[in-house]
Amino acid sequence: MKLLEERIQQDGRVLGDDVLKVDNFLNHQVDPQLMAQLGHEFAELFRAEKIDKVLTVESSGIAPAVFAALDLDVPMVFARKKKSLTLSADNYTADVFSFTKQETNHIIVDKRFLNAGERVLLIDDFLANGQAVQGMMEIVEAADAELVGAGIVIEKTFQKGRALLDEAGIHVESLARIAAFEDGQVVFAD
Ligand code: 5GP
Question: Distance of CA 171 to CAs 6, 20, 150, 174, Å?
Fold first, then answer.
């Protein structure tokens, strides 16, 4: 998606060999106009799949996921990373090793919000090693729901997540695909 690539070129900052910082439009400050456009793009890419629910992980997946859900006219559920007093005891959980934080998070979805047979679209901000998407896949499977595909805002093709999801036969759509970081600059795939 050209608009997103331009925004990454304009505002993204490369950290070290493999991390992109996009905290002024996606990961901290959020650009709602851009998020609405990303959400619309995901909705167009997956509309034919008759989605019942959009699932993401807090916090950075929420903005693009909610706009995709708005456009598809379905609910959006975000997996929580921390237990809360308000969370019921009846949950689906999965362990996710965080690439950026280098720690394992327990992701949690209340069983009331994911039902057997529902057609679920996963959304996340980044695809690196595929751990977040895999954790959400485990939760979808545990709920006996049906995984329709994964929409990713920014995929880093040089990390192993995409290959993992391709092997699992998952329909993945990424709005920007980064092939490499070279001398602090982003090189897009294709
Ligand atoms: P994965 O689970 O695919 O290894 O990593 C995806 C998760 O790690 C995303 O949910 C995102 O929060 C975080 N992440 C991975 N790579 C990057 C990156 O280059 N920049 C930022 N800001 N987050 C990333």
Answer: 25, 24, 6, 10
